[in-house]
Specification:
single chain; about 240 residues; Rossmann fold; eight-stranded mixed β-sheet; two-stranded antiparallel sheet
């Protein structure tokens, strides 16, 4: 095949990628051969995170670290993995750096912490969900997808040279853009043990976000890494 006809690689910029969820997704996608950009407020911290992923995955990993705005400008697939309290301010800051036609995959969950510091419930969001809030804050030409709320960050990060921790979890994908949702489901399916399901319109994200607090409570109570599985659907639902 002529190298000029090769499909160009689309890098994935993970904004807030130095946190547990961002690092876990970066590790799994780097393992699957995706090109990853770790975004952070601190470029040096992003580069250190990229080096840590390179060390875990090996020389085949294509991963780099940048400041958040630079990461946004360098990719048209953006994954947001930041705490809810920082979501709005960060998106307002990054809005000028987002390119037309970009896809923002938002994994934000509006969690309220109890006095002990553990998430006990979800906060009410005026727009309906964190993902819908994101859709109001990004440029109109950017498609927002809600996904990856209920995957265990601990399991995502548990990879090694001898094998990776298995995931047994469905990722429910919600978006008003069918093409963006399809791309997100394809990315989810690159993580072994994960099945991706079309969850309908973006407004359904509020339901998926609310499940996260329940799962956190179950994990604390039973000392596990609970995810969700949707049963009774035909095989085509997971394609």
């Amino acid at each position: 095949m002529n190298s000029n006809s090769a499909v160009p690689i689309r890098p994935i910029a993970i904004i807030g990628g130095t946190g547990p969820a961002g690092m876990g997704l970066a590790l799994r996608w780097a393992r699957a051969g995706e090109t990853i950009i770790i975004g952070s407020r601190d470029e040096q911290r992003a580069q250190l995170a990229a080096a840590a992923i390179q060390l875990k995955v090996g020389n085949q990993a294509n991963v780099s670290g940048m400041e958040n705005s630079a990461a946004c400008a360098a990719a048209d697939i953006l994954v947001l993995t930041v705490p809810f309290e920082g979501q709005a301010a960060l998106l307002k800051q990054l809005k000028p750096a987002m390119t037309e036609g970009s896809i923002l995959i938002d994994a934000t969950v509006p969690l309220a912490a109890s006095l002990g510091g553990r998430a006990s419930r979800t906060l009410g969001v005026w727009q309906g969900s964190a993902a819908q809030q994101a859709a109001e804050l990004v440029p109109e030409e950017v498609s927002v997808v809600a996904a990856f709320h209920n995957v265990s960050a601990d399991l995502l990060n548990n990879i090694g040279r001898s094998g990776d921790a298995p995931l047994d979890c469905d990722v429910i994908v919600c978006s008003d853009d069918p093409d963006a949702a399809q791309l997100t489901r394809e990315l989810a399916a690159k993580i072994p043990g994960v099945r991706a399901i079309d969850g309908g319109r973006l407004e359904n994200a509020r339901i998926v976000e609310q499940i996260t607090a329940l799962l956190i409570g179950l994990n604390i109570r039973h000392k596990g890494h609970a995810g969700i599985r949707i049963t009774g659907l035909p095989p085509a639902a997971y394609r």
